[in-house]
Every structure is written in structure tokens, then in C-alpha cells.
Design goal:
alpha+beta; 8 strands
């Protein structure tokens, strides 16, 4: 599909401006679930939001733009490019990946804690990102999560993932998330199936 002569499927370069835009939208999500603004003010804000949405839809593509940054399928849980996902930042570390994430109120469960489904998403994303980083982009077949304790909101968390090559297209991966002082709050193992190329 082409828009104004541009191939919507062609890879594009990473963009600090897009990342900043996504981060601002994430702040808006947090502010939305915390605000006590009255209906009159919300109505005025809604009038301001509508043209912004329209401006974005005027150049709408047939698939998420982050798939063009990461052709291996960064996925909708890749928070660097999706304001509706936690902003997990990962890099290769030895034979796995390691990184950080600070989860905001919009992803909360019990008071002060990250929703368990969001924790599972972070772990799944870390395992998938690890496999992609080591040239094994895969689909999740199964994932098992062990919640050791609540995962806190608004604190920098450490995320790690690794894998053990299996037979054929199958790979077993693992991931952990925990506090900056080394307390693991949840861990997961998963079986992944390599994407046919």
C-alpha cells in the first residue's frame, strides 16, 4: 500500500520525535486515569483532541508503523513505539537481554502495583525480544508465569531474558522482572516457535 507515493511496508528509520510523541501520549494516559477534572473542562479538552486525532488519521497506514522500524515484528507490546504498552527498554547483555521499565498508573492493578496481566506481557515481550535479538524471531506457543510478589508501579524495574535452543523450530525462553535492588517479583518460562522465513 502506498500513501502519497510512499510504500507503507518499506522499512523506516527509528525516530526520536516519534518516541517523544509516544511518551507524551503515555503521560496523557496516566493523567487521564488520575484526573479529577470536571465534565465542562473535559468537554473543552475533547474539542482539542479531536483535530489531533484527525490529523493523525489523515495519513493512516494499513499496519502499525513500528512494524516498519522492526520488520521482525516488534509487536504491539513494544512500548517504545506504542503508548498503550509499558515502555520496556532492552539491550543485548551476554547471551540474553537486559533492560529496565517504569510502569505508570494506567497499567495498575491493586493499589500501588502493576496489573498481573501487564507483568505477563512484559515477560512475554522480553522473551520475544531476546529471541529476535539473536536472529530467532518467534511466536509464543506457551508461557507460564510465577508471581512471587507484587510488582511496584512508578519504580524502575529490571527486566532480563534468555533462552535455551531446542529441537527444530522450538526454543525455550525465560524472563524475570524485579526491583532495582535485585528482588525478583515475577518470572516466566515459555516455549516459542520460530517464524518461517
Amino acid at each position: 500500500m502506498k500513501a502519497d507515493g510512499v510504500d507503507a511496508r518499506a522499512p523506516i528509520a527509528d525516530s526520536p520525535v516519534r518516541q517523544a510523541f509516544v511518551e507524551e501520549l503515555r503521560h496523557i494516559l496516566d493523567a487521564t486515569v488520575l484526573t479529577s477534572v470536571d465534565d465542562a473542562r473535559l468537554t473543552a479538552l475533547l474539542r482539542q483532541l479531536a483535530p489531533i486525532r484527525q490529523a493523525l488519521e489523515d495519513d493512516r497506514q494499513d499496519s502499525p508503523w513500528f512494524w516498519r522500524v522492526r520488520p521482525d515484528g516488534g509487536g504491539s507490546a513494544w512500548g517504545r513505539y506504542n503508548p498503550a504498552a509499558p515502555p520496556v527498554a532492552l539491550g543485548v547483555a551476554g547471551d540474553g537481554v537486559r533492560g529496565t521499565v517504569t510502569v505508570g498508573t494506567a497499567f495498575g492493578g491493586p493499589p500501588g502495583l502493576v496489573h498481573g496481566g501487564v507483568v505477563a506481557t512484559i515477560l512475554d515481550q522480553a522473551m520475544g525480544a531476546c529471541l529476535a535479538a539473536f536472529e530467532r524471531p518467534s511466536l509464543t506457543a506457551t508461557i507460564t508465569v510465577d508471581y512471587r510478589r507484587g510488582t511496584p508501579l512508578h519504580q524502575e524495574l529490571t527486566v532480563e531474558a534468555g533462552f535455551r535452543p531446542g529441537q527444530g523450530r522450538k526454543t525455550t525462553a525465560w524472563a524475570t522482572v524485579g526491583t532495582a535492588d535485585g528482588v525478583v517479583t515475577a518470572e516466566a518460562t515459555g516455549v516459542f516457535i520460530a517464524i518461517r522465513r
